[in-house]
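Why does this matter for the project? Reviewers at the last site visit asked to see concrete outputs rather than summary tables. In response, this paragraph embeds two records directly. Each consists of the residue sequence and, immediately after it, the corresponding structure tokens. Nothing has been edited or filtered.
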Amino acid sequence: MVEQAERKPANADATGAGREGRPRLRMRFNQAGGGFDFAEEFRAQAFLRRLVIQPRRFYRAVPAVSAEIIIPATSGVVTAPCIITNGYIYQTITTVGLSGGRAAYNFTIITAGNYVIAGMVNALDGGENSFFVNIDAEPQGDYMLWDISPTSGFQQRTVSWYGNGPSSQFVPKVFNLGQGPHQLIIRGREANTLLQSVTISPYP
């Protein structure tokens, strides 16, 4: 049997394998039977060039950290006598107990833990400087009173609770919040205490 010259594909490389690493064909002329025998020859070199071993990657889980949540005061569900005007909320009258206006704000905590609330407020003096505040339930009277130190225009103040008095007992008021949805509830108390926004932050 006489072996003919080997025919290579047009895209064959120097090893005789196609550039795509495919098997090549050898043609042999069979004198006895007349015609050609085709024998597939697999090129190990081509296979090895195509074999890419990817290194294993190991990833360490990093706990999610809650960033501070900023909520415009005008974005909540606000009911009378609280009103929305000029980018803030307030009420024009002083009310007793929980008869004041109500503002509710939904938010979501990514990582369970301790949180504090700060408000961008305008509290002119000691007669116009308070709200009732709680999370996930209505504020319960003076115990949950936020007595705000007077400001000069809009300034940030951290939420405290009056508690059992005679001055604010929880400074700041720290809320332990689980992962998931929550609702901040603010009730009006004194007239002309202005609230522009609230910020909920991890503590400490």
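We now turn to the second protein, recorded in exactly the same manner.
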Amino acid sequence: MSFLTQKAKKFRLDWAIAHRQSTFSKTLFTDESTFWLGKTGVARWSPSQDINENMIPKNIPKLQVWGAICSRGKVSLKIFTENMDAEFYTKILEEKLPEVKKLYGSISAWTWQQDNDPKHTSNKAMLWFKEKRVRLIDWPSYSPDLNPMENVWGYIKKEIAKKRPHTLAELEQNLLVLWNNLSDEYLGALVASMPNRVKVIIAKEGDRIPY
């Protein structure tokens, strides 16, 4: 993870100031991650490092995942091997939207969080959000430390490393079990940490925070 530029820090600071009164209780947090097969570890962002640790060599079998959490729980985990492009991403959105609506029930004015990956901000994805009348929360770039989904991936990756699956089928099964066993209390606590994350970013003038 590279150092933040002054421009990025300012954007993060401005974002935090604008959202300092928010509880994020009506925000759906989403993210993708990759899980590699083998004993070489996992590559993940660490708040204490400026580079990724345990980088994975090429050509190791892997599974990709998409997940979403909110203060009310989670949707089912999407596991895939395809290369994600804008079209595939919107298919995931279409598949998961009914689950998201079920999570929120009668609650209105909820928002959808995603990072600024080009697939997420593509014309195709933006058109989908517009047509489905799903409100997006603005999100600062270079901010994995802000997204509680990163904490979820970090936990799951540590557990996967302990289990050491030998096949992709075992890896997939482990992923499903770990995801399904995430408690609503745990996820709610992660979302509840958002106001403090915002507060710390303001205190650190937009710099990275230890989450």
